[in-house]
Write a structure and sequence with these properties.
single chain, 17% strand
């Protein structure tokens, strides 16, 4: 076990380079203010250092709102009502450091406003019903209710989010006016789409669906319930979303 000062006081922290990337990206990026004590708690439980992008996000931000708020990346959380929960809350970290604890199904690292979830694979992804290899990012697609391997680690995933390629990734999941609807949301809210995104009706004419701003937990919960009903592995990502 490494003590918190060993994790935070490093010679080459990732945060300055990440700040430069955030300033240079053409993707809209809002850095939420950090809850420093919560960030340190998360860092200690994960046992990662501030040299990593994951550690830098947890220690220095309350999370990121990207592409007009469409994608949310979890960091150290914030004490402000309606803000993004911390990585620790989303993944149900123990209240007190427990060296024996780890997120068995992997680490939920972000989500999007329509219920897609980004997660970092744990040691045994196949046992959790996830594709890919340990340490690889995966995505729970709300239009198929299945997990997809993204063929990248966490730091590469953050770089990819800032690269401007989200428009291609979300082709078929965005409708005319999506940017205005996403921008109007609080970080704790998402958009429920009806007929559901996985339905034939929505996939035939997404623009004709009805949409409403609701708590993010509700958006993700509906997708999780339907995934279980189809016999798919339990998504296991509710946390404190």
């Amino acid at each position: 076990m490494r003590e918190i000062d060993e994790l935070t006081d490093v010679d080459d922290p990732a945060w300055p380079e990440l700040q430069e990337a955030l300033a240079a990206t053409t993707v809209s990026a809002e850095v939420l203010p950090a809850d420093r004590p919560e960030g340190r708690r998360c860092l200690l439980q994960m046992q990662v250092t501030a040299r990593s992008v994951l550690g830098a996000l947890v220690l220095n931000t309350g999370g990121l709102l990207l592409d007009g708020g469409w994608v949310r990346v979890f960091g150290g959380g914030s004490a402000v009502d309606g803000a993004l929960p911390s990585l620790g809350r989303i993944n149900r970290f123990p209240a007190v450091f427990d060296p024996a604890w780890h997120p068995a199904a992997g680490l939920v690292a972000g989500h999007d406003v329509v219920g897609g979830v980004f997660a970092l694979n744990g040691h045994a992804p196949s046992a959790a019903g996830r594709p890919g290899v340990p340490g690889q990012m995966t995505y729970f697609a709300p239009d198929t209710l299945e997990w997809e391997a993204l063929d990248m680690g966490h730091s590469e995933w953050v770089s990819w989010l800032l690269s401007g390629r989200l428009e291609t990734f979300y082709d078929g999941l965005r409708w005319p006016g999506w940017r205005q609807e996403a921008a109007a949301l609080a970080p704790s809210q998402g958009i429920t789409v009806f007929p559901f995104l996985w339905s034939t009706e929505a996939q035939a004419d997404l623009a004709a669906t009805s949409r409403q701003a609701v708590p993010m937990r509700e958006v993700i919960g509906v997708a999780a319930d339907f995934a279980r009903q189809t016999g798919a592995p339990d998504p296991g990502f509710l946390g404190e979303a």
